[in-house]
Amino acid sequence: MSELAGRAVTRNEVSRWEREVRIVTPFWQHHYAKSHDVDLGDIQAAVAEARAARRRAAKGGEAVRRRDFIVGAASLAVPLGVAEEPRSGQVGHSDLDRLRRRTARLRRLDDVLGGGDTAPVYAAEVESTERLLRDSSYTTEVGRGLHVLLAEQMQQAGWAAFDHGDHRQARSFYDDSRRAAEEAGARDLAGNALAYSAYQQTTTTKRGTADADASYEVAREAASPRVSALLLSRKAWAHAVAGDAKQADAALAMAREAIEQPNDRADPDWVFWVDAAEIDIMAGRCWTELARPLRAVPVLERVLGDFDDTCARDKSLYLTWLATSYLQAREVEQSAATLTRAHDLAAGVASTRPAARICAVARNLDRHRDLPEVAAVLDLVRA
Q1: Cα 259 from Cα 248, distance rounded (Å)
Q2: Cα dist. 374→41, 301, 361 in Å?
Q3: Which of 57, 181, 254, 332 is the least buried, fewest Cβ under 10 Å from its Cβ?
Q4: Using an 8 Å Cβ cutoff, are 238 and 198 in contact?
Q5: Backbone angles phi, psi at 10, to 5 degrees
């Protein structure tokens, strides 16, 4: 694997593409072609369309088309083959490093694609690593690294299955991930598997506090500040869904303290996206669940104002909580306008979660259907 193929595009770079501060450069065009084994001509054609979109921008309505271009460009990477396995049957440190880089690159597809697109890719990576563990030879140290990698990949696959609405498959991946992490002695990853499970439970059963509490306790001694912030924010969410404001606020305060701590060690790649803004978004969602719109609205407005449309699934979801908070504050027209924006962003996203959230908010808006703004968004949702 070349040095070029080992590099990964960052969220900031994708943001620049979406906002057309930069069009995808020849460097990144060749990077994607080489890293993901796709035809360079297809990528160049997509870039040409982006340049044409820039010229059409003055005509209006281009924001969604620019988003769709980024999603389309990213989707060129989806029909991947599985990782190349060592021909000798012996897995060494260089092979493990190559597989880690590949996993990090594939993880970033979740920024712009839904689980319906990524689930087959992530599941195939799990199968490939399981095959290596079963059929190859390796040292004890490399074997531990492969188990850590497998635990990460299972969490990716579980998340994609959850996002696609396959809850049985998601639970299976999360349980297997925890076992693989525990076998490798990776307590932070084992804690994260529990946090994923808790998050799923808040969606399916409105429970999850037990696993959320356990996730932090399992991981706390091994967790970096960013990992701690992630687990604590999910703990806060589980308690907010359960209606426990005291526990939710305490966990949020600890998450903010963790994310602001100086960190003298490298974070695992699976928390690359966790920052103060993510903690703020979680806080706004928690306060919405706890019916505290005066606290939720300002933080959600502020953070979502800077949130890229490229990350359409996540932004659409977060906007539904803002729409709910507006409704709680009796700002019905603003709630309807925000839900309309969420609906527009969710168009074409291969995820079941935005549609479910949009329908839930629409049901709450229905009693105000005599207002033109509400009637218009209800027609959109029901179309």
Answers
A1: 17
A2: 45, 20, 11
A3: 57
A4: yes
A5: -95, 165
Q: How many Cβ atoms sit within 10 Å of the Cβ of residue 171?
A: 18
Closest CA to 157 of 74, 82, 68: 82
Residues listed for the chain: 383
User: What's the pTM?
Assistant: 0.81
Rounded CA separation 66/31 (Å): 21
Beta bridge partners of 90: 137
* Nearest residue to 107 (alpha-carbon basis) of 6, 17, 8: 8
Residue written as token pair 């989806």: 78
Which residue's structure tokens are 């994609």? 160
Per-residue pLDDT of the chain (383 residues), as tens digits, is 333 334 455 555 555 555 454 556 665 666 666 666 667 777 777 666 665 555 544 343 444 554 555 555 555 545 555 566 676 689 999 999 999 999 999 999 998 899 999 999 999 999 999 999 999 999 999 999 999 999 999 999 999 999 999 999 999 999 999 999 999 999 999 999 999 999 999 999 989 999 999 999 999 999 999 999 999 999 999 999 999 999 999 999 999 999 999 888 789 999 999 999 999 999 999 999 999 999 999 999 999 999 989 899 999 999 999 999 999 999 999 999 999 999 999 998 999 999 999 999 999 999 999 999 999 999 999 97
* CA distance readout (Å), 121 to 9, 68, 207, 352: 18, 20, 30, 18
Q: Which of 217, 293, 292, 299 is nearest to 254 (CA)?
A: 217
